[in-house]
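A.,

Following up on our hallway conversation. Structure tokens first:
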């Protein structure tokens, strides 16, 4: 193979690699746009679309299109109900992301021979261990998370696995961070950080908005 053919082959390989890298994002973005247009034409506005963003959410931005599409699959579904109490759990897409991300991270670290390098760097080894613990914590928390609500209140577990209960009569405001959580504020300055990608979250958000309107009318 002469140098010109080799250079052409190399450039073609680079272009194919770039195409494979951006293709999932482009496809997911097109699907999200089509779904959004269809909702607008049908005149149906989801409750979540009426929720304002926090200041941090406006700066941080949303999830990448492909992750947003995957994590959001099932959010418009119906939550499980038992004796008048609704149970919301993470979508299968969000569960897959929190499990798949550590696997991909470990794979890339192995490919980059990061493990061999960290053996001679104690500080980096400690930092790597902390990051692994955080990723493991997020995976466990997300896959075991559950939110319950009825006619009087809603309850869930915070990041420290402590059960927190909030009465509807105390709810003051709801905002979202554009990517991961809804922030629900109460009159006594408490906050609940509720994951956005839960099965049945749209009904829950609508319930929150209804009670906020009732509380404002008193």
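Then the amino acids I'd put at each of the 218 positions:
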């Amino acid at each position: 193979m002469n140098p010109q053919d080799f250079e052409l082959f190399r450039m073609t390989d680079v272009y194919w690699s770039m195409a494979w890298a951006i293709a999932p994002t482009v496809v997911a973005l097109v699907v999200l746009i089509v779904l959004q247009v269809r909702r607008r034409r049908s005149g149906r506005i989801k409750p979540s679309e009426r929720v304002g963003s926090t200041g941090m959410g406006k700066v941080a931005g949303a999830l990448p299109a492909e992750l947003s599409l995957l994590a959001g699959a099932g959010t418009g579904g119906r939550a499980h109900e038992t004796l008048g109490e609704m149970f919301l759990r993470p979508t299968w897409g969000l569960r897959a992301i929190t499990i798949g991300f550590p696997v991909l991270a470990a794979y890339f670290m192995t490919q980059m021979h990061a493990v061999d390098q960290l053996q001679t760097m104690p500080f980096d080894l400690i930092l790597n261990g902390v990051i692994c613990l955080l990723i493991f914590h997020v995976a466990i928390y997300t896959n075991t998370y559950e939110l319950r609500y009825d006619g009087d209140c809603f309850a869930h577990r915070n990041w420290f696995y402590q059960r927190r209960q909030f009465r509807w009569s105390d709810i003051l405001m709801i905002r979202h961070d554009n990517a991961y959580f809804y922030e629900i504020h109460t009159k006594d300055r408490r906050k609940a950080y509720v994951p956005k990608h839960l099965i049945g979250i749209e009904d829950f958000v609508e319930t929150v908005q209804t009670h906020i309107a009732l509380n404002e009318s008193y």
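The helical segments are 3-42, 55-60, 65-72, 92-111, 114-118, 122-144, 201-217. Curious whether your intuition agrees with the design.

B.
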